[in-house]
Amino acid sequence: MNKLIIYDGSCPMCRLYTKGMVAADQSGSLTRLSNDQLVQHTIISRLDQQRARHEIPMVDLDGGETLYGVDTWIYAFGRRSDRIEKLLSFTLVKVILQKLYAFISYNRRIIITSAPGRWQLLDLQPEFHIGQRLAFILVIFGLVSGLFATGYVHVWPPAFLGLVVGQLTLAGLYFILTHRHNLLETMLDYTGHLGMSLLIGGTITILGAITGWAILPLVGFALLIGQHFIRTYRLGLSPWLSVCFTILSLLLLDSYGSPMHF
C-alpha cells in the first residue's frame, strides 16, 4: 500500500524526522510531502485538519485509514522490524510515546525556532496549549538549573536568577505597554524561548569547561545572545529586548571578569 506523510514544511524538526521515517521503509511505498507543496484538495479532505496540526498524518493513497502521530511512527518504523512494531505497540510504551509526542509537538516551534511560514493550503502550525507550555518551561528551566549542579558554571546563582527575573520583568512590561491581546500566550512563548537560549548557550559553555577547549565558552556566550536575538525576531518582538538581555548578561559576566566563567 502506498502511504503519504504530510509534514509541516516550516518546522526543521519535522523535516528531519520524516526524512528518517521514509528512509526506514525499505519497501519504498512510504513517501512524504510538505504542506507548502500540497496542492490536492482531495488529500486535504481526507484529513482531520485540527488533529493534523498536532499529530503528523499519514494518508493511505489507496483509500485506507489515515493514521496520526504515534500510529504513524509505529507504522513507519515497524516496517523495518516486526519486533520494533510489537514493542512500540505495547500499551504502556504507546501511552508514554503519546505523552512525549504531545509534549514535543505543542512545543516544537519553541524547541527549534522557525521563521513564520507563508500562507499554506493546509496550516500545520500547532495551537497554543497552556498546560504543555507550562510543562515545557518547567522542564527547560529545570535543565538550566541542573547546569549549576554540575559545578562547571561559575556564576553566583542569585545573580543568574536576577538576570532571568529582570529580563522577564522587562519583557512583561513591554508586552503590557504594547497592549498585546494575547499577553499570557506571548509571555509564556517568550519565557520558553528565553529558557532555550540559556540552555543552548550554557550547554556549550559546560562542554568547553569539561574538554578544556577555551573557545567553547566564548561560542556558548555568542550562541546565548544570538539565539535570543533570532527567537525574539521570529516572535515579532522589539530588538530592544535582546539589547537589554545582552547588557544584563554582560553585567553578570563582568562580575567574574570573563565570559570564560559563564
Short descriptors:
four-stranded mixed sheet, 4 strands, disordered C terminus, 2 domains, 262 residues, 63% helix, single chain, alpha+beta
Spell out the blueprint of helices and strands:
Blueprint: E1 3-7, H1 12-24, E2 30-34, H2 41-44, H3 49-52, E3 57-60, E4 67-68, H4 70-78, H5 82-89, H6 91-111, H7 130-149, H8 157-177, H9 183-211, H10 215-234, H11 240-254
Parallel strand pairs: 1-2
Antiparallel strand pairs: 1-3, 3-4
Protein name: DUF393 domain-containing protein
Transmembrane segments: 134-153, 159-177, 198-225, 237-256
Keywords: Membrane, Transmembrane, Transmembrane helix
Short description:
The protein has 262 residues and is an alpha+beta fold. The chain has helices spanning 12-24, 41-44, 49-52, 70-78, 82-89, 91-111, 130-149, 157-177, 183-211, 215-234, 240-254, and strands at residues 3-7, 30-34, 57-60, 67-68.
